[in-house]
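Table S2 (text version). Query chain:
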Amino acid sequence: MSGHQQTRVVVTGLGVVSPIGIGNDRFWESLSTNRTGIDFLKSVPTDGLPSAFGAEVSDFVPADHLTDRKFVKVMSRDIQLGVASSSLAVRDSGLQNGDLDPLRFGVIFGAGRMTCHPQELAAIAEACRTEDGFDPRKWGREAVNNVAPLWLLRQLPNMPASHVSIDHNACGPNNTITCRDASALLALSEAVHVIQAGRADAMIVGSCSSNIHPVDMAKFHSFEGLSRRSDDPSRVCRPFDFERDGTVVGEGAASFVVESYQNAVRRGAEIYAEIVGTGSGCDGRGQVNESSGLGLVRAMESAISRAGISPRDLGHINAQGKSTQPDDIVEARAYHRVFGDLAEKIPVTALKSYVGHFDAGAGAVELAGTLLSLKHGYVPATLNYEVPDPRCRLNVAQGEAQKLANRTAISVNRTFMGQSAAAVLRAI
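Corresponding structure-token output:
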């Protein structure tokens, strides 16, 4: 069913906590002036790591963004970033107490891998030490007493949604999406369906992740492939460039207030864009499906069909753009399969060149970039795109921010395993 035949759903609030700025204005200023957030890592030692580079959120004080500061001690870095972004989004939306029935105000939040880092269990491991080595029998009998009772609350992926709900008294539908890169767009899609089904008037949507830790970096390098460049951090992440050699870790979060168009008009809210279509898919089994990005193809086709538009109506594509050799090629193939010759004409931007790659949170920050592009009428350039890859053949935005031909965009994300999501948004 086309979007115009259903309840219209719009975005009225946006909050970003990112390596290139906290808050919408700083974030957009960085995108529009080509200012990267990738630099030498400062918060962790880099000896022995596959890369000394990362995109860290600086000048972040979590207590400044929380309704109840006592919760900081049971929040991992990921959760702190996510809850802070939700506070910025709600404030940006203009929602006040009494504007919504709490039972019709919900939360759907994406979360990445909240890793239990080794030092957090150091005390319990030490308590099991004996002269002969390690005695596991002491684990449950006495060693477990060395772990803080609320330790687990820092690791659970459902905690961002829980804290956001508590902070904003959002007692309606609540869910957590743990689908890595695709989490934010899948959360957005579910929120749209919840509102269109009449189960809520407004939803807080978002995703958060922090991968600035040696354990996470080791995982990323094993499964995703980090860049091994060691010269200039500002030039290391190169989506779709022929000389790309891997991605860069980062951290961040973004949140959005999504509500029915009728409710937004009733309270006089400013509208960023209408969500006119969403879709999802997965590559499935077989090299043919994986190499052609079948899941991403299905996700984009579904989103465009639900939006009731033609690919010619798209002003730009906000790409996954991971900056690894195989992933960028697969993504480009998917664009050619869906858009045909238009794949070489529609402007493409890849914001990981600014903020790095950080699992679920990256998709949310990229979606924030799409919304601000629609608001301002410009698409940010992709940094470090210097040598076009003939295996991709895309119209990658480069040099400086480009004026949009029209204000309809598609934002996409795809995981390493081929799970994909897409959303078509249109400025009103």
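Notes on Table S2: The first strand starts at residue 9 and ends at 18. The mean pLDDT is 93.
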